[in-house]
Design goal:
Elements lengths: L6 E6 L19 H4 L1 E3 L2 E2 L5 H6 L5 E5 L5 E5 L2 E3 L5 H12 L10 E8 L2 E8 L4 E3 L14 H14 L8 H20 L9 H11 L8 H20 L13 H5 L7 H8 L3 H13 L6 H23 L1
Parallel strand pairs: 1-2, 1-8, 6-7
Antiparallel strand pairs: 2-3, 4-5, 5-6, 7-8, 8-9
Length: 314
């Protein structure tokens, strides 16, 4: 669709707020540079920052996400919309207002035009952090921890696993963290690892097929696993003085209970349902419920309840 030439508003977003499964609309704005301004009183001006930071003036094209959606890129700018000169102009304007960690930082700019609103964020690959123009941090991100920044970084990499790929160091560190988590699970009943030993072993075996070169599939796989780990770290306040060192703390602080008529029934059954509920909660507290594991759990649970019903009937 063709947008009217009017004032547009920059809207700082986090990678988690971008829905890559949403329908994509093509955007076309004629004579954008001469007619478009961003509120309040920010004119777009020519800049070479986007080219110099990415060092790839000819990097223009599109790739297909492993899940099937198209990704368009031009220099350091990516979008699920077709990236044109309009997006380059927007990207340059954003970069001119960003406080990068160093002059030639490796960065990626996400830009998505929604009506008269320009959703965006900037990824600093060197520090694995998300930044915005003029320090305009989204409310949900104020006071974000280092783990939160890394989590959002890998959400971006999962959404856009190219043209910027994960590095050999990303893969190496991921293997080390997974191996450490496996040992933690084996030696601690309250391990904060989001995965079981069997799941970790499967992941490590799958990662062995990847080379040190990196591509869109490797980046997607590495990003998915990092997201699972970092999501758990954010929940457990990793890296802070309030870090939860035992995953059962969430149950201790907020024990699961039956309420209403279910509480009365549980009392008639000598609180056996409470024991069962507590066991289920401890099994899954702060864990990632994979489909395969959930099916096993569901089958075991149904079998136990059939036995209970049979005993009650007898």
């Amino acid at each position: 669709m063709t947008l009217p030439l009017a004032s547009y508003t920059l809207s700082a977003k986090t990678p988690a707020e971008f829905d890559r499964f949403a329908p994509v609309h093509s955007i076309k704005v004629d004579e954008f540079e001469s007619a478009l301004s961003i509120r309040p009183n920010h004119q777009f001006v020519p800049s070479t920052v986007a080219i110099s930071t990415y060092n790839s003036a000819q990097a223009i094209g599109s790739i297909v996400h492993p899940e099937g959606g198209p990704i368009s890129y031009r220099g350091c700018i990516v979008s699920t919309q077709i990236v044109t000169d309009v997006y380059v102009t927007i990207g340059n304007h954003i970069l001119d207002q960003c406080d990068l960690s160093k002059e030639n930082a490796g960065i990626t700019i996400f830009v998505q035009i929604q009506g008269c609103q320009i959703d965006y964020y900037v990824v600093d690959h060197d520090s694995k952090a998300i930044i915005w123009a003029g320090g305009d941090v989204p409310k949900s991100f104020k006071g974000a921890t280092r783990a939160k920044h890394e989590h959002e970084y890998w959400i971006h990499m999962e959404n856009f696993p190219g043209p910027r790929f994960s590095t050999p160091d990303d893969l190496r560190l991921l293997k080390h963290v997974l191996s450490s988590n496996a040992i933690d699970v084996l030696t601690s009943d309250g391990s904060t690892s989001p995965m079981s030993v069997q799941q970790i072993q499967t992941h490590l075996k799958s990662l062995e097929v990847f080379s040190s070169g990196g591509d869109i599939y490797q980046t997607y796989a590495v990003a998915r696993l990092w997201n699972l780990i970092l999501q758990s770290r954010v929940i457990n306040k990793y890296g802070t003085t309030d870090a939860r060192l035992d995953r059962f703390i969430s149950i201790t602080d907020n024990p699961p209970t039956f309420v209403g008529i279910y509480a009365f029934i549980a009392k008639l059954m000598f609180k056996r349902p409470h024991i069962h509920l507590g066991r289920c909660s401890r099994a899954w507290a702060d864990r990632i419920a994979y489909t395969e594991e959930w099916r096993k759990f569901k089958a075991t649970n149904e079998q136990e309840w059939r036995q209970v019903v049979k005993l009650v009937g007898d």
